[in-house]
């Protein structure tokens, strides 16, 4: 199937949108705590998105768009917002929506995509998209859905806590500890309660304070 025009415009629009939201955030009245760490993380890592592969994206995949019938997966809705772009972009809603409701679901989505444990490149890109979507969520919610701003802030602060305000050593990245502080594998037989323990990474990984 040939789709060069859509592939090109989808990627370019995302790049322009990222710049737009950053500029709008800087002009706005709301200021994130330790915002310089988040903005620096975006600026210092934006280059890793260069030459990323392009794929068909759902573009808004999360638990709220999954249909369950009789406790069984039955389908996915909301494909009308599809786009073409980095396949890793489809994971951004793990941090923004799904992580708050079900860490096992997040683990399952990642392990269902990869045949082996995801590498540091995935986690670095995942973190970058998470940081970028913090900025766009603030701008979009303030402009179009201000009554939901408090809920958006709760989700944002959970992302910030999971990623220690994006203040991790460049070499170590954030690798498998973003989802509540525990390694993600093996999935079979996990004790879900252990995923409530955040910040295990602070003891086991080097953090730049």
Question: Helices and strands in order, then pairings?
Answer:
Blueprint: H1 4-27, H2 35-45, E1 55-57, E2 66-69, E3 72-76, E4 83-85, H3 92-101, H4 103-113, H5 120-144, H6 149-162, H7 200-204
Antiparallel strand pairs: 1-4, 2-3
Distance between the termini: 49 Å
> What is the structural class?
mainly alpha
- Mean of the pLDDT scores? 75
CATH class type: Alpha Beta
How would a crystallographer describe the biggest sheet?
Answer: 2 strands, antiparallel
Q: DSSP helix count?
A: 7
Radius of gyration: 17 Å
Shape: globular
The counted number of beta strands is: 4
Helix percent reads 40-55%
List keywords for this structure.
209 residues; mainly alpha; Aminoglycoside 3'-phosphotransferase, Chain: A, domain 2; two-stranded antiparallel sheet; 7 helices; globular; disordered N terminus
Write up what this structure looks like.
With 209 residues, the protein is mainly alpha-helical. It has a single domain, classed as Aminoglycoside 3'-phosphotransferase, Chain: A, domain 2 (Alpha-Beta Complex), CATH 3.90.1200. Helices cover 48% and strands 7% of the residues. The strands form two sheets. It has a two-stranded antiparallel sheet with strand order 1-4. A hairpin with a 2-residue loop joins strand 2 and strand 3 (72-76). It is globular.
